[in-house]
TrEMBL record:
It comes from Nannocystis pusilla. It comes from the Bacteria. Coiled coil: none annotated. Residues 7-187 form the Ketoreductase domain. This is Glucose 1-dehydrogenase. PANTHER family: EG:BACR7A4.14 PROTEIN-RELATED (PTHR43975:SF2), ZGC:101858 (PTHR43975). One of its GO terms (molecular function) is glucose 1-dehydrogenase [NAD(P)+] activity. Gene3D superfamilies: NAD(P)-binding Rossmann-like Domain. InterPro entries: KR_dom (IPR057326), NAD(P)-bd_dom_sf (IPR036291), Sc_DH/Rdtase_CS (IPR020904), SDR_fam (IPR002347). The keyword Oxidoreductase applies.
Amino acid sequence: MKRLTGKRALVTGATSGIGRAIALRFAEEGANLAITGRRRERLDETAERARAAGAEVVAIAAEHTRGEDNERAVNEALQGLGGLDVLVNAAGVIGNDSILDSPKPDEWRRIMDANLEAVYDLTRRAAPSLVHGRGPSIVNLSSIAGLRPYPTILSYCVSKAALDMLTQCLALELAPRGVRVNAICPGVVVSELHTATGAVADYAAFLERAKSTHPLGRPGQPEEIAALATFLVSDEAGWITGGLHTIDGGRTLTSFR
């Protein structure tokens, strides 16, 4: 039997990378989906592939740093799916900044808005419906950069550390209502996140270096993150909440290098 049969999931950032992989895996596992993204063409591609896997899909173009888009996304998801059981906050951004060499107040605000404020705002709008869901849960896409500091990505590290605390506070608050809340903290994953924002000048070299910084000798794949997300929202994970789940090829076991 498919693991998510009958689940109704809202997945953000579904146009590429980890968000797309999660949406497609959920579809394969029997979930029906509301998916969001900023690029309509890419969003429709994900929707088409998810429908081919048997899912009912509501595709919603949205910019989650805008409150009106979050309100519309939740309303369209509820109308299209008849309720919500799962929320996956996969949308996010990265950028380079440091306090001395390249202080960028606008970059700080951009990253905080996308990685923290948007997640809070969408979650607060979805939570009243989730508490009435079937085995409801929330998964936030964080990063090992929220668990330990890395140079040149100051705002990103702080945004993910704050997201981790938001995850745990929500887990405690929503537990009496039966809603589980977890975060996934990946290491380097092959995706468009770094290239789309210009955060890495030489992406091939960046991935090559990941082979030496991750003890398992390679970067991760979006589908591996999707597999963990699938488990966390499934009934098999019914006693797991408040976790910051690293999936990083052993990266956080090593000293910084």
